[in-house]
Amino acid sequence: MKILVTGGCGFIGTNFILYILKKYKDYKIINLDKLTYAGNPENLKAIENDPRYKFIKGDICDKELVNKLMQEVDAVIHFAAESHVDRSILNADEFIKTNVLGTKVLLDAALNNNKKRFHHISTDEVYGSIKEGKFRETTPYNPKSPYAASKAEADQLVKSYYKTYGLPITISNCSNNYGPYQFPEKLIPLFVTNLIEGKKLPIYGQGTNVRDWIHVDDHNEAVDLIFHKGKIGETYCIGGNCELKNLEITKLILEEFNLEEDQIEFVKDRKGHDFRYAIDFTKINKELGWSPKHNFEEGLKTTIQWYKENEEWWKPLKSKVIPNITRKQNG
Ligand code: NAD
Predict the structure, then answer these.
(1) Which residues does ligand 1 sit against, CB inside 6 Å?
(2) Is 262 left (phi over 0), alpha (psi -120 to 50) or beta?
(3) How close is the Cα of 114 to the center of ligand 1, in Å?
């Protein structure tokens, strides 16, 4: 099996490539990544000489390149995206280009090269915000941020290529990931690295917004299962069974550093801030036997430890964090 992974130098893609090459000794991966501010080729330095791995610096919007790479592979797993909600609120141009047009370029290339197997990585944010109950695969889309809208549009395009052309697709919509290699603009790595640097923790509003958290390895295990055993044309919701208020997470992080709540700084709320996300993952559990394995408090501890031990990884990235819009509290 030879897989084209897009966005493999980002947070989830990096962890996915490491996971797949460790698990499947005969698989090969081509990683196509544009290396935006969020992409870091250093993440995969350990495997750069592995003959099963090839890195191509390039844009998923580049039709010629994507078409050429598609001829070399059996399947696509599509992670590449602009992923930070706050940046999308400032300017959505790149979100539409990469998340919508880039996905279309990949779909066309997969279609025109013998209908390659296509797995699309998406987010629970396409469903909007929910006060009670949980999102499931049948929940109507109701995106609130330009990021979520661009992912929703991409999902619909992917579905349309199945319905119109019979392209063998699957989609997964996952909740908030945490773990190593996450860019330090997102809530957990931002707060952890801020504390290491002796800085305050800026929380939107009163910190009452609720997110469902999943360890990135649990997400990737689910993607692996869907890719190999999922039903073609179907969507699967993936969740961590771990709903927490942003303030609760912050307190857990502070506890790990033996610091008090006076490190918290409440700041003006994000525009259109979704109140709560919650995922019902019954479908993937029943059909594929998947459920998340990581306990959040344990996973948080090891993640904090990783950031403590890898300052040389995140320190240079912090200069790329946009001040005052530095939290990704909804995704
Ligand atoms: P990330 O921002 O860390 O990484 C994105 C990667 O895509 C980077 O390496 C970047 O260089 C690359 N990229 C961006 N534009 C590109 C382009 N035009 N061509 C090629 N490469 C490009 O993102 P992430 O957190 O790893 O998220 C990966 C995927 O998972 C995204 O599709 C995101 O929507 C989805 N997702 C993320 C979460 C989360 O909590 N992080 C949750 C659910 C779903």
Answers:
(1) 6-7, 9-13, 32-36, 38-39, 59-61, 79-83, 98, 102, 121, 123, 151, 174, 176-177, 183, 331
(2) alpha
(3) 26
All structural domains of the chain with their residue ranges: 2-177+213-238, 184-211+243-275+296-325
Q: What is the DSSP string of 270-320?
A: PTT---B--B--HHHHHHH-------HHHHHHHHHHHHHHTHHHHGGGGGG
Question: What's the whole-number mean pLDDT along residues 53-82?
Answer: 98
Residue 326: which pLDDT band, with cuts at 50, 70 and 90?
very low
Structural domain 184-211+243-275+296-325, CATH architecture:
Alpha-Beta Complex (3.90)
Q: How far apart are CA 36 and CA 38, in angstroms?
A: 5
Span 148-163, mean pLDDT? Answer: 98
